[in-house]
Recover the amino acids of this structure.
């Protein structure tokens, strides 16, 4: 007799289905049980408003969490950057698998790179974080382009370029890799130019805290270095009291000497969307070995950023 399939709750978008399918395969290997995808529509999927207007934080997550709470699915897969920084007691992020490429990328007409875009070029992005850093980069490098707010899935966004409505769009490298479209990238943005969103490129596999057997099985997919990095990034975000639609970038990466991991560096940025003001700081320390140590790394850098005036740049403050 075949064991009952585990039900994985996922958003319906092509990207969500692709990344959930990858997790489903891994969970099936770990548990020996089949995994079926249960498609769930979230408010963020059906609303046409810009994310900053509908609250940003949690709009892609709430419906999946409700399905978990009602027992309609056994576990759910989220893009980690969509998760609110406060975790409900009844749910647990049982696994954060190895992170994909955290960088942002550009898909531009005529295979142009960012620095080669013509004067007056229009670049589409729905992210205040990307706008702030791209506009700051333009100011300091004598470039002249306009950032244009857009929404939509990967196909829609790339379509703005192929149809000629925009000169370029900014997307996450991880998403394009997962849907097999990374060959369309015309420029990878260095993290020195644009710091990614906290948790970008990482997935969160969430289940109910009382399902000890499943929590233990899913934990086999967890990558401790990725977890430490994204915990520090999200701690910074939480300490700045910013929602996921606020113009905050953060990246924790490992400093490696040969094969030996030496330290973790955490970088954070907050900026006004016109790029006129950026608060950008970094800190380096031992690789956090506990959840609390990773949280402390983020909180301490956030405190330094707030002391440098970050609060006044936040726009939307989380309630």
């Amino acid at each position: 007799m075949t064991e009952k399939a585990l039900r994985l709750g996922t958003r319906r978008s092509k990207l969500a289905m692709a990344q959930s399918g990858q997790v489903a395969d891994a969970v099936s290997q770990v548990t020996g049980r089949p995994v079926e995808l249960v498609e769930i529509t979230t408010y963020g999927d059906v609303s046409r408003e810009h994310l900053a207007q509908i609250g940003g934080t949690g709009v892609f997550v709430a419906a999946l969490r409700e399905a978990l709470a009602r027992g309609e699915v056994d576990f759910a897969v989220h893009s980690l950057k969509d998760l609110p920084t406060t975790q409900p007691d009844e749910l647990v992020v049982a696994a954060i698998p190895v992170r994909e490429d955290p960088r942002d990328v550009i898909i531009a007409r005529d295979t142009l790179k960012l620095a080669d875009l013509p004067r007056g070029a229009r670049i589409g992005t729905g992210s205040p974080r990307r706008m702030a850093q791209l506009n700051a980069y333009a100011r300091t490098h004598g470039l002249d382009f306009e950032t244009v707010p857009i929404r939509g899935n990967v196909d829609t966004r790339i379509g703005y370029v192929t149809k000629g409505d925009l000169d370029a769009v900014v997307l996450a490298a991880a998403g394009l890799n997962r849907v097999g479209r990374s060959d369309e990238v015309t420029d990878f943005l260095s993290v020195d130019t644009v710091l990614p969103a906290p948790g970008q490129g990482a997935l969160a596999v969430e289940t109910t805290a009382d399902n000890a057997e499943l929590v233990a099985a899913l934990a086999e997919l967890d990558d401790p270095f990725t977890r430490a990095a994204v915990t520090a990034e999200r701690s910074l975000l939480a300490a700045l009291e910013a929602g996921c639609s606020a113009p905050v970038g953060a990246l924790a990466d490992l400093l490696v000497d040969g094969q030996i991991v030496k330290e973790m560096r955490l970088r954070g940025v907050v900026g006004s969307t016109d790029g006129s003001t950026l608060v950008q700081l970094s800190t380096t320390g031992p690789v956090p070995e506990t959840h609390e140590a990773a949280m402390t790394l983020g909180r301490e850098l956030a405190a330094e950023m707030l002391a440098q005036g970050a609060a006044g740049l936040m726009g939307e403050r989380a309630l």
